[in-house]
């Protein structure tokens, strides 16, 4: 590449990255019978920069699709205009055992080419006056798609093979349980655990225990060896840590901070345990959903995060303009569902309930009780409401009910009663064993 600058204008001469020798070597191996092995390595037409190579690969795909065998004759018949070139590939072909070498070289050139073209497009985009935040988001999206390989069409044969492997894995007693447990027996039985790619909305009125419950669930996941990222848009790190240490120690940490009275040994040990748990906390306020999406991608890719917790939806910003708050919230929940799918992890999303719920005689919530819900209940895989067992004017009996009102992966509607100790933020199932303390790994 050569670069010349004159009068604030840059003139660039460039060569688009490619490795034609590697492409030829790869196709030669395929023509010698290594198509299946190449397909398993993920080879697609995008790997080839030369149009002839793309056409020959497509011909091979068509032959396999029709149930044929790949060789010089069948491929030449399928791609007649490239017949002479195919003869040349065969004449100078290496051994099929060289597939691994050539595929690595071709793939490396493919990635370089992809990155180059994406960034060239970004240079062209930067010439247009537009919202800089949207430009940066587009750049991040393009880079993510490049690193995750999401730009190509999904290969149906690869997808079908993956499904067959899932079916085969069920032969000896069912498929492996990939869910993250809640730490509460009754909830796990009815909800089915937290599954990859799913969004779980946990809703409640202010002061109803949503944040405490989400921290309890984060700790339960971390005790299973899962890495958790938690965004708190309402509390700073110290307040979150205070709640976590209370859960782990069983002590009233807030009282200790005010008076100095409490079991200092328990609190110290719980603090050490909390610091050792794989929980990453982000307490930046006024974050946009696109910024959260970028961070989530990075945490999953760099830190291997297994579960995301967002506290909470109402405090998120969309970064765009909408006719009303309902449409804005709907756009954000759709983005959060995309985050769950592209990251392949469960997302726990906290949300407020409408004030009208308090005015109703019935204490049983409905999906419409989600505040500014719009399409939120459609985007979510599960929606649950955390509701006190007693009314505001009645003595607190220490019980909260978790009402499941939507659930794609378990019982559709259910009620799970929980003991909630407010002063140490602990939850326990009224039915079943206390899973968090006795069952999960230390």
Write the topology of this structure.
Layout lengths: L1 E5 L2 E5 L6 H21 L10 H15 L6 H7 L4 H9 L7 H28 L5 H17 L7 H14 L15 H7 L7 E6 L5 H14 L4 E5 L4 H13 L3 H7 L4 H13 L2 E4 L6 H15 L3 E5 L13 H19 L3 E6 L3 H4 L16 H4 L2 E7 L10 E9 L6 E8 L4 E4 L5 H4 L4
Parallel strand pairs: 3-7, 3-8, 4-5, 4-6, 6-7
Antiparallel strand pairs: 1-2, 8-9, 9-10, 10-11
> Rough shape?
elongated
Q: H/E series, N to C?
A: EEHHHHHHHHEHEHHHEHEHEHHEEEEH
Strand order of the largest sheet: 5-4-6-7-3-8-9-10-11
Question: How much of the sequence is in beta strands?
Answer: 5-15%
Question: What's the number of structural domains?
Answer: 2
Give the helix tally: 17
Structural class: alpha/beta
As a whole number of angstroms, the C-alpha radius of gyration is: 28 Å
- Which fold name fills CATH's third level, the topology of the largest domain? Rossmann fold
Going by CATH, what is the homologous superfamily of the largest domain? P-loop containing nucleotide triphosphate hydrolases
CATH architectural designation of the largest domain: 3-Layer(aba) Sandwich
CATH class of the largest domain: Alpha Beta
Give the tally of β-strands: 11
- Head-to-tail CA distance between termini: 56 Å
* Uncertain residue segments: 435-442
What level of helicity do the residues show?
A: 40-55%
Determine the mean pLDDT. Answer: 84
Main sheet characteristics: 9 strands, mixed
């Amino acid at each position: 590449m050569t670069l010349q600058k004159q009068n604030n204008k840059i003139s660039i001469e460039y060569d688009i990255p490619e490795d034609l020798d590697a492409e030829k070597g790869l196709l030669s191996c395929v023509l010698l019978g290594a198509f299946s092995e190449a397909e398993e390595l993920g080879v697609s037409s995008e790997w080839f920069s030369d149009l002839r190579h793309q056409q020959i690969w497509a011909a091979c795909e068509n032959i396999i699709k029709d149930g044929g065998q790949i060789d010089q004759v069948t491929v030449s018949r399928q791609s007649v205009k490239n017949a002479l070139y195919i003869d040349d590939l065969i004449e100078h072909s290496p051994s099929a055992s060289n597939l691994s070498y050539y595929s690595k070289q071709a793939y490396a050139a493919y990635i370089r080419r992809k990155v180059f073209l994406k960034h060239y497009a970004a240079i062209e985009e930067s010439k247009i006056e537009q919202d800089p935040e949207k430009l940066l988001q587009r750049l991040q999206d393009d880079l993510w798609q490049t690193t995750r390989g999401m730009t190509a069409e999904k290969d149906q044969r690869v997808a079908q093979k993956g499904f067959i492997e899932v079916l085969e894995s069920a032969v000896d007693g069912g498929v492996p349980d990939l869910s993250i447990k809640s730490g509460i027996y009754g909830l796990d039985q009815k909800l089915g655990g937290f599954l990859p790619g799913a969004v779980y909305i946990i809703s409640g009125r202010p002061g109803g225990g949503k944040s405490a419950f989400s921290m309890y669930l984060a700790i339960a996941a971390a005790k299973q060896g899962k890495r958790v990222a938690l965004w708190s848009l309402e509390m700073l790190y110290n307040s979150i840590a205070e709640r976590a240490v209370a859960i782990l120690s069983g002590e009233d940490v807030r009282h200790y901070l005010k008076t100095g009275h409490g079991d200092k040994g328990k609190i110290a040990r719980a603090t050490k345990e909390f610091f050792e748990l794989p929980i990453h906390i982000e307490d930046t306020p006024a974050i946009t959903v696109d910024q959260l999406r970028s961070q989530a991608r990075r945490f999953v890719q760099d830190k291997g995060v297994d579960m995301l917790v967002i506290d909470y939806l109402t405090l998120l910003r969309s970064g765009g303009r909408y006719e009303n708050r309902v449409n804005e919230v709907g756009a954000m929940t759709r983005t959060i569902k995309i985050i769950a799918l592209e990251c392949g992890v469960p997302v726990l999303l906290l949300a407020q309930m409408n004030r009208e719920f308090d005015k109703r005689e019935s204490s049983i919530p409905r999906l419409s009780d989600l505040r500014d819900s719009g399409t939120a209940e459609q985007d979510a895989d599960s929606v649950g409401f955390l509701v006190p067992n007693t009314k505001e004017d009645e003595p607190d009996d220490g019980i909260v009910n978790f009402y499941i009102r939507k659930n794609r992966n378990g019982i559709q509607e259910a009620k799970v009663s929980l003991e909630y100790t407010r002063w140490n933020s602990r939850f326990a199932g009224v039915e079943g064993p206390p899973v968090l303390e006795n069952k999960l790994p230390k």
